[in-house]
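Hey team,

Filing this mostly as a record. A colleague (T.K.) asked me to run one chain through the structure pipeline before their review meeting, and I want the input and output archived in the tracker in case anyone asks later how it was produced. No errors, nothing strange. Just documentation.

Input sequence:
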Amino acid sequence: MNAFKIEGYIKFEKKYIPIRKELVAKDEKDAVEKFYCLIGSNYGKKRREIRIEKIQILNPKESRNPVVMYYYKKGELNG
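Output structure:
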């Protein structure tokens, strides 16, 4: 499993608001799916209202996200 950092935009009315998430996933495809699910459930947005700009593998040592830190301490993350 890897830690990913995904950056993108959410459409609110006629504006796009930037958003960034750090999450744990098996691969890039799984990370994108989790991103859509999280943003969709938290903000009530459909996939067509979410734009992904950048996906990168994150060094878990540099993350501040508690979920990423938990998996890193358990030894389940690569890196």
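Quick notes for T.K.: Strands lie at 2-12, 15-25, 50-58. Residues 60 and 72 are 6 Å apart (CA to CA).
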